[in-house]
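Appendix C: a fully annotated inverse folding record. The material below is reproduced so that readers can follow the format used throughout the book. The structure is listed first as tokens, followed by the designed sequence.
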């Protein structure tokens, strides 16, 4: 009879193989970690150097995320009375303007200006600088001919007067810097308005640019007697609502008020409508008449 502790040769081989496999399973991860650390030590030196460079680069980029605080701009008052048309590049920079701002202003002043109104239209001139210089500016006085009664006193002296409310598209194109597109847009808007009563209305023309406006400002005069008047006591609702300065509701309000009153005795009566604000009234007033 065999001993209960007897292990056959085949079983011993199986156990040996099992122990060997268990040994490998336990030892292999340790060997892997050991050799991995060794490799890391050998390889990481150049990697560390690369990572250091990358970190330095990132650090610089992160610094750039936070822009430096802009220096507070310091503007100066002019030394005395001056004609903006005569100011040099250095003079404008003395006031605290940048080189770029000064260059733009000089380009605008290629077309002489004759009032602070035109100076303020130069978009690169900060309001702070304008407030500092507005009381020190002096301008040459424009010369007028027999049409003087129709000319805004800020209109420049030009050798050939071009009247905005009667000029045709060819006349507009004859102005240096004004092409067919702007001539067409000005004519269209003039027809919608019934004429212009001040040159600033040109800025309401579709796609009008500041540069183009400055050119027109120095080339045109306005005869307000050429305005087409709207007769408040007879005008139709259809005609009234088509005016650029009145909405559908405002035109309807005026016509309804006229129906209630019978007629308007004064033009200012339309202000009784809640829809006619002071701003709207001032814009539309030059076009209104009681006759």
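Designed amino acids, in order:
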């Amino acid at each position: 009879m065999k001993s209960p502790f007897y292990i056959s040769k085949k079983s011993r081989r199986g156990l040996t193989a099992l122990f060997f496999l268990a040994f490998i399973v336990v030892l292999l991860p340790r060997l892997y970690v050991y050799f991995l650390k060794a490799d890391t030590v050998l390889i990481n030196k150049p990697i560390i150097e690369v990572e250091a460079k990358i970190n330095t680069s990132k650090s610089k980029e992160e610094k750039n995320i936070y822009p430096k605080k802009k220096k507070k701009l310091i503007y100066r008052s002019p030394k005395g009375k001056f004609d903006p048309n005569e100011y040099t590049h250095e003079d404008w920079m003395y006031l605290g303007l940048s080189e770029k701002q000064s260059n733009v202003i000089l380009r605008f002043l290629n077309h002489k200006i004759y009032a602070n109104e035109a100076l303020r239209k130069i978009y690169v001139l900060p309001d702070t600088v304008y407030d500092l210089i507005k009381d020190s500016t002096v301008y040459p006085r424009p010369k007028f001919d027999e049409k003087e009664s129709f000319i805004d006193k800020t209109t420049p002296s030009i050798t050939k007067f071009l009247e905005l409310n009667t000029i045709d598209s060819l006349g507009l194109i004859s102005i240096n810097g004004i092409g067919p597109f702007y001539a067409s847009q000005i004519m269209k808007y003039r027809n919608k308005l019934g004429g212009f009563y001040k040159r600033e209305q040109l800025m309401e023309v579709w796609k009008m640019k500041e540069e183009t406006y400055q050119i027109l400002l120095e080339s045109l005069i306005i005869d307000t007697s050429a305005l087409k008047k709207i007769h408040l006591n007879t005008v139709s609702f259809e005609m009234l609502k088509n005016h650029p300065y009145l909405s559908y509701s405002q035109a309807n309000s005026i016509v309804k008020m006229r129906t209630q009153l019978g007629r308007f005795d004064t033009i200012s009566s339309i202000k009784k409508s809640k829809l006619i604000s002071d701003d709207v009234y001032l814009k539309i007033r030059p076009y209104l008449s009681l006759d």
